[in-house]
UniProtKB/TrEMBL annotation:
Membrane-spanning ranges: none
Residue span(s) of domain HTH merR-type: 19-88
UniProtKB keywords: DNA-binding
Organism: Cohnella hashimotonis
Name used for this protein in its record: MerR family transcriptional regulator
InterPro entries (UniProt xref): DNA-bd_dom_put_sf (IPR009061), MerR-type_HTH_dom (IPR000551), MerR_fam (IPR047057)
Length: 180
């Protein structure tokens, strides 16, 4: 008998048996079912079990692995490198989190620098002092660096929306079962 959504089997506790279907994981993470299936297909994120009817089931260990995958992806690693990292000895979760913290600190540093440059430009404009070409070039460079992530996130969001539309148009029976 398959376990699902905290159900119990043989008297075990609900917390120890917590399982999620692919649609549940998609809803929790914001990833598409299609992406999760692709990760399974390439061996990056296989489910730890399945229901009697063949639906993928994921447990808490799988969620931890997915966090590692997404953290490494956020650090800019391609999926093939992420697979290599995860195949080695179990990656140290504290190192992955530390790398995420470092990346976030760098983003904050870039944003603070941009804020400082914009404040200086604003003060110069208010004082009716001309902004030189170098000041504009520096400001534009900072804006570009700051906005690259924003545009990447918007593109990713649009791709996810197109994936969902494609899934809906395909109306695959397997999609409908997995989402419930």
């Amino acid at each position: 008998m398959a376990k699902h959504r905290g159900g119990t089997e043989d008297g075990e506790t609900a917390e120890a048996n917590r399982r999620w279907k692919v649609g549940d994981i998609a809803a929790l993470t914001g990833l598409t079912i299609r992406t999760l299936r692709y990760y399974d297909q390439i061996g990056l994120f296989p489910p730890s079990g399945q229901t009697d009817s063949g639906h993928r089931l994921y447990d808490e260990g799988d969620l931890s692995r997915l966090h590692q995958i997404l953290a490494l992806k956020e650090l800019g690693l391609p999926l093939t490198e992420i697979q290599s990292v995860l195949k080695r000895d179990a990656p140290d979760l504290s190192e992955i989190i530390a790398a995420q913290i470092d990346r976030l600190r760098e983003k904050i540093r870039v944003q603070q620098k941009l804020l400082s440059e914009l404040e200086q430009a604003s003060a110069a404009v208010r004082a009716q002092a001309p902004l030189g070409v170098e000041a504009f070039a520096k400001l534009l460079g900072m804006m570009k660096q700051s906005h690259e992530k924003f545009f990447w996130e918007r593109r990713t969001h649009a791709e996810r929306a197109l994936d969902r539309l494609g899934e809906w148009l395909a109306e695959e029976p397997d999609d409908e079962r997995d989402e419930s």
